[in-house]
Amino acid sequence: MKPYAVTSGRKFSLKAYDSDETGEYKKTDQGKDKAKADTAKLIARLAGLQERLYANATRSLLIVLQGMDTSGKDGTIRNVMYGVNPQGCRVASFKTPSKDELAHDFLWRVHREVPPNGYIGIFNRSHYEDVLITRVHGWVSDATVKRRFNQIKEFEELLHENGTVVLKFFLHISKAEQKERLEARIADPEKRWKWNASDLEERKLWDGYVQAYEDAISATSTKHAPWHIVPANRKWYRNLVVAEHVVEALESLKLKTSPGPEGVDFSKIVIE
After folding, report:
1. Which 3-state string (H, E, C) describes 72-90?
2. Nearest CA-CA partner of 111 in 59, 158, 146, 145
């Protein structure tokens, strides 16, 4: 899975990453079934690791999900995180800033949602919207965007230094795949609630978003907060890649089973 990580400070092109890739898994029913089975094992492992994270309450994990419209941010959360205890997991979505939020710096509303020790936090879209959509639509200058790149790196370094592991995923789909998913929303009555006419207008800006993402990822992928480019045309492979990285991140913390309250000798407790 390591080739999906973007090397710190390296310029790159999304064209170099195949959104339809499935690694060692064949693009067949058998390959799909094997990937799903392996993902299920990872999710079971994730549940145990999250319990240790929650019990120790010394570290936290922040998962940042970004991608084009229909790239599968909601689906990733639903299919990868379903096994964790909701008590120790928080999801935050960042919509158009409110009047109160606009009266502060762009990171103010984001910092409030950072997971406390013991928790997994998930950003469904994030502080990166302020260097993506704002730039593509020309709402901020290039100078402001570059300044925000540095502020984002400093913000994520602050989180890292205070015990938060930062995992950033770009869910990479092709323009053709987005077309199919948008058409599916139109055709399926169960999916029409997701439809937004603005999706078509944003689709016209595809090339602008590609450039904005390439610049943002190149500028903000660091050793302590790397970006991972996740092939996301195949939902089952997307889920596998994200699950493996999340499990790997939690295992790297080497958290031990919490011993329980200090000074208690459990061998001497008798329950009548």
Report:
1. CHHHHHHHHCCCCCHHHEE
2. 158
**Whole-angstrom Cα distance, residue 234 to residue 19?**
8
For residue range 177-208, list pLDDT tens digits in order: 999 999 999 998 888 888 888 889 999 999 99
φ, ψ of residue 104 in degrees (nearest 5): -115, 175
Residue listed under structure tokens 């060692």: 24
Note the CATH number of domain 2-257.
3.40.50.300
**pLDDT above 80 for 7:** no
**At 231, is the secondary structure helix, strand, or coil?**
strand
Domain range list for the chain = 2-257
Q: Are 235 and 79 in contact (CB under 8 A)?
A: yes
Q: Is the pTM of this model over 0.90?
A: yes
Q: Following DSSP, what letter does each residue of 159-209 receive, concatenated? A: HHHTTEEEEEEEEE--HHHHHHHHHHHHH-TTTGGG--THHHHHHTTHHHH
Residue 236 token pair: 């089952």
Q: Retrieve residue 36's tokens.
A: 């799903």
Distance of CA 229 to the CA centre of its chain: 11
Determine the straight-line distance between the first and last CA of the chain, rounded to whole angstroms. Answer: 52
pLDDT digits (tens, 9 = 90+) for 154-169: 999 999 999 999 999 9
How do residues 106-127 score in pLDDT, each as one tens digit? 999 999 999 999 999 999 999 9
Name the band, by pLDDT with cuts 50, 70 and 90, for residue 210: very high
